[in-house]
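User: Let's play a game. I give you a shape written as tokens, and you guess the letters that built it. Ready? Here's round one.
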């Protein structure tokens, strides 16, 4: 049996709506100029690491696909397949989608705001049928099954779909010895960490993953992480960035 491959998790670079501090969720917004720079820096960091991805999994949303392409440019290996999978899509924020976080905090109060934004089981009110249909017409959701587009979603729901992806597609590739890069979103990567590290509900609620910082997982033969929580390639910069995410109320 070959040694398990390495896994790198990368949260996409800052998007245009991230820059506006809005709940982006399933909106297919592009990277900002800062986000493109973050993706390029992540690629440079990976190019100097002992890591050569055989495949890159992304969500179906352009901000992850574009991040992956910029990483491949830095790696100078454009032949690596980029495979979009809907299970890695961002969480549906329901009626919060597109809204400014600062406005909602004032409108809802800190307890309700935190419950809908960060709790494991809390789900915001569903988005309207009009908004749901508008998102459904996006090219990012073309040909996807109905369950790929929820009117609202809890973090628990994201963990459920990401767990299926882990066992069906990601873990078998790693067990076969392939290095894999996963470019996802704040919530889909928190969900994947929950599955890989077997986090408690409290641990995953408290987890913050910064944009543009590669997180490396190495595994034992039994597919247990050598370091629980993984290892950032630039740990000091990643901790600083994660602290800023936490100070802003989390991803």
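Assistant: Ready! My guess for every position:
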């Amino acid at each position: 049996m070959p040694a398990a491959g390495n896994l790198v998790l990368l949260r996409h670079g800052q998007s245009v709506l991230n820059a506006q501090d809005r709940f982006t969720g399933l909106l297919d917004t592009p990277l900002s100029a800062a986000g493109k720079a973050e993706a390029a820096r992540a690629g440079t960091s990976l190019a100097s690491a002992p890591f050569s991805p055989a495949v890159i999994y992304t969500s179906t949303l352009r901000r992850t696909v574009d991040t992956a392409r910029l990483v491949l440019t830095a790696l100078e290996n454009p032949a690596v397949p980029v495979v979009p999978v809907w299970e890695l899509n961002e969480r549906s924020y329901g009626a919060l989608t597109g809204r400014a976080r600062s406005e909602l905090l004032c409108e809802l109060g800190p307890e309700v705001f935190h419950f809908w934004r960060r709790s494991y089981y809390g789900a915001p009110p569903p988005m309207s049928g009009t908004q749901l249909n508008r998102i459904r017409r996006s090219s990012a959701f073309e040909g996807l099954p109905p369950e790929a587009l929820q009117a609202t979603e809890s973090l628990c729901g994201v963990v459920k779909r990401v767990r299926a992806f882990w066992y069906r597609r990601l873990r078998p590739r790693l067990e076969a010895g392939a290095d894999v890069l996963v470019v996802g979103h704040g919530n889909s990567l928190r969900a994947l960490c929950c599955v890989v590290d077997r986090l408690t509900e409290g641990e995953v609620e408290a987890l913050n993953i910064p944009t543009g910082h590669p997180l490396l997982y190495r595994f034992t033969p039994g597919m247990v992480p050598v370091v629980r929580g993984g290892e950032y390639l630039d740990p000091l910069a990643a901790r600083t960035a994660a602290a800023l995410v936490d100070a802003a109320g989390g991803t």
